[in-house]
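Task card 7
Instruction: Convert sequence to structure tokens.
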Amino acid sequence: MTTRKKLPFDHTGSSFDSFLSEEGILEEVEAAAIKRVIAWQLAEAMSAGKVSKKDMAERMGTSRSQLDRLLDPENSSVHLQTIAKAARALGKRLKVEMVDAA
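Output:
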């Protein structure tokens, strides 16, 4: 039987969140994932309601370029107020919830 040497980057048995935390990128990765989900949900709601980008921007009282930033899953510099405004424009409301850390 051979014993396995633990390497400095060996995270066997730990959670993915633990790994990201140890690497110092947990918050960044979570924020990016949340933004991707929000962008996807908005795009899906627009599609379901047959709302074009032009119409959506008008409903929000903003520009197409601002809407494009909101719908860009890579752009994390969107304010909660903008997301809430987009939700209202689609007849929805934004719900933000905090949960216990694992």
